[in-house]
Structure formats: C-alpha cells, structure tokens
DNA sequence: ACTGAAGTTTGATATGGATCAAATTTGACG
DNA sequence: CGTCAAATTTGATCCATATCAAACTTCAGT
C-alpha cells in the first residue's frame, strides 16, 4: 500500500511502460505496433490510484480524459435532475471508460470505483491527435466506440424484453466470460458490485435480485454467499438467457 | 418518380454536392471547412433511394458503409437468434446510421426504411482515411459516436425507470424537437413509424401504446388520428416526463 | 370502388415484479 | 473484538402493464 501511494505520487514524471503492462493484449496497446508503442506511452498518465467509493470523474464536469482500468473495477452511471440513477456499465481491467464523453465538453456520466482501483489516464486531446498518426489506433478507437454502442443496445434489449431471471443470468455469464479472458476462473469469482448496483443496472428492485439469486441457488445453478459466486451449471444459465445475445452486457 | 430512379442510377458517376445540400448544417459537412468539402464529396455516394420497407443493410452482413438520411426516415433494430426484435433507433434527415458498426466486420443491426427514403452512403474505409486528414471531421465522428452511446444509455434509463406514459411523452418530445431543428412544425407532425415500432422501441405492448395515446388525447395533451399527431400542451408532456432527460431518446 | 390483410383500438383478465415491512447478516471502524 | 450502519434476505401485498380476445379502421393492390 505504501508502494501504491508512492506510485501515484510520481505517476506523471515517470515514463509509462505500456509494453510491459500485463494488459497490453486487452487495452489500447493491443492496436499499436511494437515500435509505435512509445508514442502511446508518451501521452498516458499511468497508475493513478483510487480508493473504494472515490470518483474518477463526475457527470457534467469538464471532460478531458478517457481512463483504462489497470486493476480493480469501476461502475459508471448517469443521474437525472430528479436524482434518479441508472448504472450504465461495470468495467474491468483493460476496459476503457469515458468513451461516451470522448468528444463532448462534459462527462456524460459519473465513474465510481468499486474497490481500490488503479487506472491509466489518456488525455482526449492528445489521444485524438495520436489517432491521426496511428491508423491502427484510430481504427481501434472506432471499434471500441462501436462496441460500446452495441453493448448499450443489447442492454436496452435486455431491459425491455427479458425477465428478471434472464437478465441476471446474462449478467453472470457476461462477468464469467470477462473474468475468463483475464485468466481468472470463469466459474468462481467475487462480484465487484453490490446487489444494489446489479439491481439498478438491470432495471430491477434489489429484493428481486436477491430472490433470483436464492432461486438459482436452490436450483443448484449457482452457489452464492454475499459477493462470492460459484457457477455450478453454466449450461443451465445459458438456457435461462435463452436467445439473449450473451456478449452484450457489461 | 421517374426522376428519382434516374438519380439513383447515375449516383456514383455524378459528383456529389454536399455544399449545396440543405442538410449541410446537420450532417457530416457540418464539421468540414468550406475548402475541404470537396474531399468529403469525393467519397460520398449520393442519393440512393429506397422504397418503404426496404433494407439499407442487414444485421450480420459485411459492414462497409455508414449512411446519412437525406429525406424520409429509417428505423434500426437488432434481432436475436430467437427472433426477438429490439428497435434501437429512429433516424431523420441529417442523422447518421451505422455508427454501431463503424469498425466491426458485420453490421450490428438492420436498417429498414419507414417510407420512401433517400440516403447518402459513406464507405467506412474511405471515411476513416479521410478523418485522418481532416481533424475536424475526426472530432465530429468521435462526437457523433459519443452521442450515440449517450442516447443509448438514456434509452436504457427510460426503459428501466420510467412508466409507459413517461416513455411515450419522452418520445413525442424527442420527435418534436427533432422536427423543429429541421424547420418543421414541432407541434404538428406525422409519425414516421407504426405503433408497433413505438411499442417495441419503448419496451411496451402495442396495446399499451394505443391506450396511452388515447389517454393523452382525453386529457387534451395531444390530438392523434392514426399517425397524424398534434401536441396541444407541450408543457404538460414535459411535466409527464418529469426528470427524464428530454434529449436522450431517439 | 372492392377486398383482404395489416394496423389500431378497446375491453377483460392475469401476473411478474415493485413496494412495504421487518428480520438477519456483513463489515467498517473505533 | 464489539458496535452500529449498511447491505442482504425473506415475506406479504399491490399494481402497472402484459396478455388474450375481439371489434374496428386503414390502406395497398386489383
């Protein structure tokens, strides 16, 4: 922890090392050739640390950067004037936050850290400039943004057409596959978010989420104790989601 | 109509004239300087015409272009393996379709024309290339895509937190303001889509949509006969949407 | 203008999940 | 390690909207 703090403090003067980052196959470096990596490293502010509950940025404040999760996890949400909140996404290491505000003056959402989390910051102005010089990177940005639109449409679909059980099964499977891509167990993981956040994200009441969890548990599909979850029967979960496109939920 | 067909046939050899287009303040030319406009005109395929019900492109087919609506209107939707459909957006003149597939191999949705519609086609490969040379255009593309993500999040919000009345009021207000920006009456317009599409888009049953329309009518908030709609009391509609962000629905 | 199909409206009924209420568990912090 | 607030679970009830059914209207094609 002491080390982490020091890391934070010396972040900007220290040269970033995307090439040594374990997430280089998930994050932006993925799209950049070996010899161009340095240019990405030139613009990134590496290793900012946030404690649980802290905000990376706030809705309606001036939008200056995108952030890649390095470790930990993040939730984004939009809030109406009336105070209603809608969680719009959960982000895991290697995923990029702030694409919905890439080219707008203010952040369209608030990004809140769900646990102690480290992020890399990409100033949008510099990133935009760099994408003009690195076609692969530009293409990747378009790709990520397209993907984000698609995810969001899938979420809309989930919200408008699926039952509580289907929504929760879809979320569990999405998390599972994302853990797997990060070389963690796809069947045995700890949820980064509270039931409350799940409920809000999926357009359900907390009580409903809780009930579905216990129902799944009674059916022997999962084992859940608090945030600790074990998927006992992935096929059954897939059967629950039925025809819902599995990848489409963040 | 004869003229329209001829226009279609000679589209590619004919030089596009974005600078003379009445939509140049809404569409891509908006972001391009006078003297660079020619370069945009070089890549656009202008004036393709579709008859009501025809598809501009189909989900899962190879994605090659974005399309700007020139006249008419379009709906986009995603369809699951199970055949479930979710309408993801309605598009009016000057709006760009296909951003969710900008940098993916296949189209993520199907674009269906709601009435006789003319579109301009922007091949993605050329567009991407051009954005590298025209920073303003690149910025605009990022902006449009960010916007699309935001819209989609607002839709998710609408679907998960709002009642049938609120959803329909929000849609009517969104259409209203979009008609207005196109110099058409904001209170007196004809819906381009069927009740069915509205229901699907808003995650409601057709019957519910119909009922809410008549309820609004009985309250003297709107007058609706088929697709012909008149907003009699915009303030009342706004009161119905309450704290829902009004711009956030397509 | 005629006709059938598709779209829309209206009514009656059923239900999934919200809401209200309260018990139980977890976990942060002194 | 004890305490209190927050998170989670469980139970009882209610309601907005889906669903089922059927009449009515619109409109494209002949």
CATH first level of the largest domain in chain A: Mainly Beta
Described by the principal axes of the CA atoms, the overall outline of chain A is globular
Low-confidence stretches of chain A: 1-12, 245-249
pLDDT averaged residue by residue of chain A:
91
Describe this entry's structure for a reader.
By secondary structure, the first copy, chain A, is of the alpha+beta class. Helices cover 40% and strands 21% of the residues of chain A. Chain A is built from eight helices and eleven strands. The two termini of chain A are 29 Å apart. The N terminus and C terminus of chain A are likely disordered. Chain A has two domains: 152 residues, Jelly Rolls (Sandwich); 80 residues, Arc Repressor Mutant, subunit A. In chain A, α5 crosses α8 and α6 crosses α7. In chain A, the strands form three sheets. Chain A has a four-stranded antiparallel β-sheet. The first copy, chain A, has a four-stranded antiparallel β-sheet with strand order 2-7-4-5. Chains A and B meet through α3 and α4 of A and α3 and α4 of B. The structure holds a DNA duplex (30 and 30 nucleotides).
What attributes characterize this protein structure?
homodimer; 250 residues; alpha+beta; Jelly Rolls; Arc Repressor Mutant, subunit A; 2 domains; four-stranded antiparallel beta sheet; 11 strands; 40% helix; disordered N terminus; disordered C terminus; DNA-binding
């Amino acid at each position: 922890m002491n080390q982490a703090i020091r890391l934070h403090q010396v972040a900007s003067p220290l040269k970033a090392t995307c090439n040594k980052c374990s997430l280089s196959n998930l994050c932006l470096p993925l799209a950049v050739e070996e010899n161009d990596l340095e240019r990405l490293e030139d613009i990134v502010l590496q290793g900012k640390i946030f404690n649980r509950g802290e905000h990376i940025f706030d809705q309606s404040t001036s939008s200056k950067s995108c952030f890649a999760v390095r470790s930990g996890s993040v939730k984004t949400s939009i809030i109406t004037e009336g105070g209603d909140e809608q969680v719009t996404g959960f982000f895991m290491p290697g995923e990029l936050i702030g694409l919905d505000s890439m080219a707008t003056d203010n952040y369209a959402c608030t990004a809140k850290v769900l646990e102690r989390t480290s992020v890399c910051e990409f100033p949008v102005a510099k990133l935009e400039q760099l994408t003009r010089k690195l076609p692969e990177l530009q293409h990747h940005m378009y790709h990520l943004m397209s993907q984000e639109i698609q995810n969001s449409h899938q979420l809309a679909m989930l919200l408008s057409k699926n039952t509580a059980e289907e929504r929760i099964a879809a979320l569990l499977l999405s998390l599972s596959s994302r853990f797997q891509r990060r070389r963690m167990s796809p069947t045995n993981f700890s949820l980064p978010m509270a039931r409350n956040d799940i409920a809000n994200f999926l357009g359900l009441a907390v009580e409903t989420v809780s009930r579905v969890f216990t129902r799944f548990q009674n059916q022997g599909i999962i084992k859940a104790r608090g945030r600790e979850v074990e998927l006992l029967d992935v096929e059954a979960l897939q059967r629950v989601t039925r025809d819902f496109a599995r990848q489409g939920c963040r």
